[in-house]
Fold:
Amino acid sequence: MRTEGLGRRYWKSLVGAERHGSRGRGERAREGYSLSRRYLASLVGFRLPAASPGSTVTADPSPESADRMMLEPALASIGGGVSATHRQLKELLIGLRLEGFSPERPSLGVSTGELDLSAAAVAGANDNRFDIEFRVRNRSGPADALTGVGITVKADTTGFAVRYLAIVNDSGHAVFRDVPSAEWSFDTFAPSGRRSGARTMVLPMVRRERDALAAAGGDDYAVIVPAGALYRLSRPGAGEPYILEIVCPADRTGIFPLSYRGTDGRWRELLIPIMPVRSGSPRSRVRLREFSPDEPWETGDSVTLAELGPEHRQIIEDSISAAYDRATIAAWKNLVETAPPQVGDIIQARLSASEDQG
Structure:
């Protein structure tokens, strides 16, 4: 007789699936509760009271019930305004992991509420790398209800987890490229709500672990955006500013915008130039003063020097001041000769002031 894996047995326990023609007392006691409640109750050891057949039971009918107390910590990792549809997506991602979606089980579908999620992983030229495709179908609501929502796949191959980011499009489609073979876990987050334009990409908030899927946080964090650039945050020491390193594919260099809401609630904007190099991967590093792991941050398509003018003086000066290493300073110096005269003068003046101070 085939032995089921732990993940499969745990999933059956959560949803109350039959085992050998019968159901255990624990499974029957979970009837009438949503998947998210059963999952979180299992995590925190909360014993759900038995529900009468066909009914939904809450431990406390008030808004501050056990249901809300258990559900909100997991949903907190989503960020932004959490819609009912987005909550269901979170449940689907929990189910996807517990059902064992992996390189060994590369095709899977899960459903809950009004949503269906199909997931497929296809091996690339390197068998240790996969392209992962998610398709979400809303059975009773608008097809674009999840447009702009971010999904991450976390892959831990060397003891340091890297998250791969995809954004759900208008048709409920999200694709992750070149994800390494590993134990995968999944999370989702909402747009920040800041109207920054169509070229903006919201990044997942770097918060400390809130539940089994929201393991984003600590002082070392990395996410790879769809264009292939790696954004890696680190903190040299307690109380010191976070350092952001961006590593680009050789054919994707440019000037990258970054926006983040600081600990004082004020949005800050930086430009980060990354120039081609003779060997290795192009990269730059900057200090993120007042960066908060519990606040939103955004990046976007690279900008050109032609898009910059005297009105961007403050952003340019702040960006040069934030440069953390010689490679980033050198990138700014390379821009002086090719920038429009007024912009080149701003860059040169700030570089000279920095040298005088340093």
Q: What stands out?
A: The mean pLDDT is 77.
